Amino acid sequence: MNADTNTNTKEKLSGCSMYEIISKKRDGKALDREEIKFFIDGCVDGGIPDYQAAALLMAIYLRGLNSRELSFLTEIMTNSGDTISLAGIPGKKIDKHSTGGVGDKVSFIVSPLAAACGVKVPMLSGRGLGHTGGTLDKLESIPGFRVFLQPGEFKQVLADVGMVICGQTENIVPADKKLYALRDATATISSVPLITGSIMSKKLALTTDGIVLDVKTGVGAFMRDTEDALSLCKTMVETGEKAGRRMIALITRMDQPLGRAVGNSLEIIESIEVLKGSGPADLLEVSFAVAACMLEAAGVTGSYGKAGEMLQDALDSGKALEIFRKFIKAQGGENRVCENYELLPRAGFQVPLTADRDGYIAAIDALEVGLTAVEIGAGRSKKEDTIDFAAGFLFEKKTGDAVKKGENIVFIHAGDIERAKKAEKRLRRAITIVPRAVPAAPLILFRVDKDGHRSF
Ligand code: URA
């Protein structure tokens, strides 16, 4: 076969040929803007067959993209559908994105905290992916909460409350929907340029002033290896800066669940507790660091110490909690959940998992915890699955804690006893108890911005 026998009418008109584009990338050559646009447009309008799109994705996976190609890819993907302009809303608009983890409810804490300090926080979020929980699923555990808003309503909530969290409509970055499905089926997900194009195109579809990234690394993260996380982080920061956003990223550990709660309504309760001033130390540490970066990106303050004081004041004064309450109400939710947790879904069974020996917790495998959470109904194994909002885990002990035989380590919240028992067996294998105390590992590893990376 040669290029001619593989050329269709559209290719003849545009002067581009998918066959030649694939060969070029296969041979390690750089694609130009027109070729990347031809590929993305053809994916969206169905003009390019899946086998050719998949072949190019594999060639990109193996050969990579240079920063020029990646900027073209991201910009063309961003403009493959609707974009939301926030230009008419006063104040600096700062988005926050996490690459996903287990027990990661940081968005619910940093958004009202940053908003209380004068930053506008617009977020387009997603559902659970694999073993990681989804922001939208967690919010939907609040009775009445609407995760889909019209663009006008999205802007109104942002202007009135200072924060808004909403799902993407079908028409925001349609190119990513098509490409992600193909990547998922062709083992081409874990590619730094393809992940960057996918995440950053969705972030850039909102016209914010800056974006703060929380890139997770460790057993429960998408990027297990810290070097890979750093490479992804630097690429996303560079791509965002080229698109005119102020970018700051943190690399944070995701070896054990963040905080004590895993599961939708349990995580909402834990977030409210943090906003009332009584959250677990690890969750507070990551939340304060991310929120401080948001204040810096917005130009509120570049001093970490000053940001810490402002954020503490937003907590102590109750201002952040009040914003969270307003946000729930503005999106149709029952905001009395902030005072009365009984209004949230609650599991019929709460089964403790107890220590089988004396010792110290050396590890709580976040990946296994996340997969077990999906098994008891807190997440989906198939897109069509329905979620049990009440299901999940509440950890009494975390890595580094001492335990005595018979002491509770975690409570399993489940809709039926059989599921709870099955989860107990699996969770037990995910928890390692050793005879001697284990040193605490740092939670926040690096900070990355346009000037490079440094230890946090
Ligand atoms: N999340 C995304 O949105 N895209 C990816 O490619 C990976 C994670």
Short description:
The chain has helices at 9-14, 18-26, 33-45, 50-63, 67-78, 106-116, 135-140, 151-161, 174-185, 192-204, 226-242, 264-275, 281-297, 304-316, 319-330, 366-375, 417-430, and strands at residues 94-98, 121-125, 163-167, 210-217, 246-253, 261-262, 349-354, 359-364, 392-395, 402-403, 408-414, 431-434, 444-449, 452-455. It is α+β, with helices and mostly antiparallel strands.
Which descriptors would you attach to this protein?
binds uracil; 17 helices; 16% strand; Transferase, Pyrimidine Nucleoside Phosphorylase, Chain A, domain 3; 456 residues; 44% helix; single chain; Pyrimidine Nucleoside Phosphorylase, Chain A, domain 2
